[in-house]
Design goal:
Chain lengths: ~325, ~325
């Protein structure tokens, strides 16, 4: 099979080819260098879709909610893209399929594109790849893109916040709300959802969240938007339309306001940071290029130390890689 | 409380002060810049201790084995340092205490120093910090240092391999051996241990591992050392002395041989890479320093793209940071 250049795939993607969309997401995920100019162009043309970051601790009912939201958006005629980030499965090296299986009913709908991505290793490349995937879906014409992440781990929480509207899902009971606070998940919410609100103990969680909000935990730039708490039952369908209404209201509140500009600037900074990490680390990853044997030797003889050797390695590599920028 | 300079702590550490040892490990873990020159000096003076990397999938009985090995080494009069790396607990932000609790009997022994470290975030700083901690224990006069990691996740496996002798623990049953192969754990072993060998199904695991080894899965630089498979029962104590004998034999086989030099060069390369990652990423971590507002603005306006902006950010930052090295 011949390698289709990424710009050719991009043209096919714009013509509605979902195979090309999938290929480009895979290249973004793998960090293929050839795909970067195409992804850079994609970024410059993206920004039309509404990106919903949706997160919550495991068991909070995120995936079921995503399915319900997607079904409701489809009824309104919107095309929906879903990027689901699962915790890395060390044994399979791939994403756990649970979320995907729960979404089979949607998977046969040509107006829905679902992509599971694994959280990979320790290079922070997951955030960059997920946001590249969101842009690809945007340029491919999906109106709403749901970026679903597990609300555990700094990167997973941050990437859900790198969206237009962040929805944090809490389930009643089990002290989830306390765990979530500790994980730093609750504080990123533009909208709180209490799932499984058909359950008796849901009211307690609703009250707890509302009280937390009035206690002024959520101050700062968010004050221009009153964070709502929405009860949702994926079982009865209660609250799903209310939630969509709140999401639309948040979109409007951030469309052309200082609140929105500030948010987009923060997302851009996050994106910049994660991309810089990717570009830097790929030069220093085992196997990418052999290090200087002399550096490694002086280190293994303890004639040098890791900090001095690393500075030298960085200066050397960077001088070569970034000589044009540095000139 | 006044801040004690790291070089002052280092002097106290050399005089046998374990409080100073703990403080310096904490500074290495936190990535305190002030501690770096001291840690660099520590590296240059380390290398006397024998470092045992010990890993295995969860439930393989690693921690119990570490306790048994430590007790046996103590009987021989050796001082033992233990660095245990637990999976990051997203809720507490700290290490899970299970391993530490299992070691309480050792914790009261002044010839044993135990330190649990969390695996932090996505910056790869864990490996660097753990190896700095090993050096500190080395310079503090501990004869054997056990670096225990969970054999799940690339970094955790690699750091166990950044040692003088790597011991991989497998438990009988449960298909662990297959899981471990997939995780890339088995291939790093200098010595295989089958734990819980008082159990009926242990023989099967012993045979499987031996067969795998004769099938030539383990070729390459390891050929100069025949990888043994040792059955150990922490319950009956069987095999612990045998294991210590094998570890001593491996130490001798690598002391002043090409096999050992090659290994130390590989460990040095790994160390160099992880330290370079730390030095690079800390410049680009949110909050460390504000990014150029102009860069973030052009990105949020989509007048630029993340790759172009990241290259500019890197070139700019690096030029400032590494101007002496680049001159």
């Amino acid at each position: 099979m011949t390698y289709v250049p990424s710009f050719a795939l991009l043209e096919q993607l714009r013509a509605g080819n979902t195979w090309a969309l999938g290929r480009l997401i895979s290249r973004a995920e793998a960090g293929v260098a050839e795909a970067r100019p195409a992804l850079a162009e994609v970024y410059r043309h993206a920004g039309s879709a509404h990106v919903i970051g949706l997160t919550g601790v495991p068991g909070s009912g995120k995936s079921t909610l995503v399915a319900k939201l997607t079904a409701a958006l489809r009824k309104r005629g919107e095309k929906v893209g879903i990027v689901a980030i699962d915790p890395s499965s060390p044994y399979s090296g791939g994403a756990i399929l649970g979320d995907r299986i729960r979404m089979t009913e949607l998977a046969n709908d040509s107006g829905v594109f679902i992509r599971s991505m694994a959280t990979r290793g320790a290079t922070g490349g997951m955030a960059r790849a997920a946001l590249d995937a969101v842009d690809l879906l945007d340029v491919a014409g999906y109106h709403t893109i749901i970026l679903e992440t597990v609300g555990v781990g700094q990167d997973e929480v941050e990437v859900a916040h790198a969206s237009d509207t962040t929805v944090v899902v809490s389930a009643p009971g089990l002290g989830d709300e306390i765990q979530a606070i500790k994980a730093g998940v609750l504080e990123i919410a533009d909208i709180h959802v209490v799932s499984k609100c058909d359950r008796d103990d849901a009211n307690r969680t609703l009250t707890d969240l509302k009280q937390m909000l009035t206690l002024g935990t959520m101050v700062g730039p968010k004050r221009a938007w009153a964070i709502p708490v929405v009860g949702v039952s994926s079982y009865t369908g209660e609250g799903v339309d209310d939630l969509l209404g709140r999401i639309a209201a948040h979109r409007q509140a951030t469309a052309d306001t200082e609140l929105g500009r500030e948010r987009r600037r923060r997302v851009a900074e996050f994106r910049l940071q994660k991309t810089a990490e990717t570009l830097l680390l790929e030069r220093f990853t085992t196997g990418a290029q052999p290090f200087s044997p002399a550096l490694a030797d002086s280190l293994s003889n303890r004639a040098s130390d890791p900090y001095a050797a690393a500075r030298e390695l960085i200066a050397r590599t960077i001088r070569k890689e970034y000589s044009n920028d540095l000139a």
